[in-house]
Structure formats: C-alpha cells, structure tokens
Input
Amino acid sequence: MLSGRTNVNKFLIEEQRRNPALAGDFSMLISDVVRSCKAIAQGVSRGSLADVLGDAGRDNVQGEAQKKLDVLANQAFIRHCEWGGHLAAMASEEMEDIYHIPPENPRGQYLLVFDPLDGSSNIDVNLSVGSIFSVLRYPEDRQGAEPTTDDFLQPGACQVAAGYALYGPSTMLVLTVGNGTQGFTLDRNIGEFLLTHPNLAISPETREFAINASNERFWEAPIQRYVSECLAGKSGVREKDFNMRWVASMVAEVHRILMRGGVFMYPRDSKDMSKPGRLRLMYEASPMAMIVAQAGGLASTGDERILDVQPTSLHQRVPVILGSRDEVERIERYHREHATGEDQPFSSPLFSTRTLFRDD
Ligand code: AFP
Output
C-alpha cells in the first residue's frame, strides 16, 4: 500500500531543483551512499546469522582493532560509490590514504568522506551503531588532475551534504544538504527510506548530557566545571537536576539529541597528550556539526566552532561539544573564562590577611 510519504530520491531531486549549486549528479551520488547504508543495515541486522561479528584480526590506521563489519561496511561504500561517475575520490576511517576511483570508471565533481561503521565496539553486544558521511566539492581548479589528500582538507563549512545512518531498532537516515536536517526511516517492506522526521529542530535548552565519565580526571577544567555543575543539580548554580546518558556510539548520541535535545561531549583530555580528543574531524565531527547546526544546534571544540576548523590531516582528531545551543554556548563561555582566569575560585583576603578573626 502507498504510504504517501516522500522517499529519499524524490526529496533529493526536489532539493537539487531548488538549489542549482548542487550541480551534476549530486542526487545520484547520495542515492549511491543510501544504497551503501541499506546494504550495511542488512549485514548489521543479520548479526551472528551472517557470521559478520567479531574482530577482523587487524588494526586500522588509528591503531584500533578492526571488526569484520568495519571492513565489510567500508567495502560496501566503495562498491556502491566508485562506479557511478559522481566522485573524484573517497576517504574513510578504515583506509590510511585516500581511495582513487579505478581508471576504468569516470570521475565526478565530489569527494566522499565516511566512517563506515561508527561505534563498532557496540556490534558484538547488539547495540546501536551507525555510518557517517560527508560530501565535499572537488575543487574546480583541480578538475581533471589526480586527487590528493590536500583536496580533502576543507573545513566543515565547505560541506555540500552530511548525514548518518543509524542501525537501531529501526534503521534511519538523517541527512542535510544545507537546507535543514531531515530524518528518513527505512521501510523494509519496500526497501526505501521514507521521510518521517522533516525539519528536525534541537531544543536550545536541555537537562541531559552525555560524556564518558570514566575520563573525568583527564578532562580540561571548563568541562570539569560544567559537569560538576550539572551533577550538583537543583542544589547547585544550575538550580535544576540533569540526567546523563552514554551509548559509546556517536551516531546514537547525536540522534537522541536531535530527537529530544541534550549535549554530547568528547572533550580534549590529558589521557594521551598526543591526541587532542578522541573523535575524528573529517568523518565524525564535521558531518555531525553540519547536521546539528542545520537543526538549530551548535558544535564546538570549546574554543572554536567545529565547522570552522581547518583540517591539517585526513585522520585528525578534535575535541567535540555539540547539541543544544544554550549549553554549548555556556561551555564555550567556560573555556573563555578559563583562558582569562575568571573561573578561578574566589578567595577573600578577609580571613587570611586581616587579623579580624585570627586568634593571635
Ligand atoms: P568505535 O567506532 O571505535 O567504537 O568508536 C566510537 C566512537 O568514535 C564514538 O562513536 C563514541 O562516541 C566514542 O568513540 C566512544 O568512546 P569511548 O570508548 O571512550 O566510550
């Protein structure tokens, strides 16, 4: 039976008509990405039945153990997106260098960056995971030349589109092409993503935050201040009680924030000084920042907006604070106050330097 809902292809074609800057085969490129996500959803949902769980037996470029599904999901993106003629090159969390389109296929005007399976430590315990993607333009003056890593190093503000697929109780696709953020649900009966959550909007206020609290001792001071104020609840300066969540899958956390507000933090910490955060800029932080910003929220490192961060390498890490606007702005203020020393505890000279209360 026809549901009357817009499917993702119709949505894309209408967006492309509305915005002539979405040149060439833009809608067909996103359709290829969508097909990759459907294939991954199928593998994830079959789990043990398809023998896709467990370690692949090797590490990725980050030195993290690859899961079998990490590898399969990476292959799904390549297989579905390399032949259409819409891409100049691809890059992924699972590949050290950029992926060149095979010479037998035509090249297109876009670059695709993706995390094929984010939150993959959740796979073996059957919890939500997702795929994240970002579309950039292949610089015009480079058309025809062999793509290099430098072509990818564009700040998030240059993204043409960003999205994620969430493989949860239902499979959802959340997508922005720069005109709001839209949510689609996979109807498995007809194999299509249907628009179920048009124009998602993140409430500016929240009483919910998400952070891996086991890292507390390593957090930078502004985050320690923010979280301790949330934990103090009604009896503290915030004068309201907060709730906390941690799924350890960024896609699931961002999705919750799009649905009911909240703030997600993976801040800079001192656990490993060589890493300025855990999350990757180009295929985690930047696409999520665009999705969140298009839904009225904010994404920041604490010191600058994530969409403004100029990448210097493909697998660069970055601190991430995103979600409800008021909270992210507050955390940015705490960073500024820390930089100027304004957040130092107030110490009154009354009791230590004057003799008024001393027993001497
Ligand atoms: P994996 O994809 O390696 O499981 O990492 C997931 C992730 O990048 C992000 O999705 C989570 O928010 C974060 O890492 C979880 O980190 P912790 O392991 O510190 O909870």
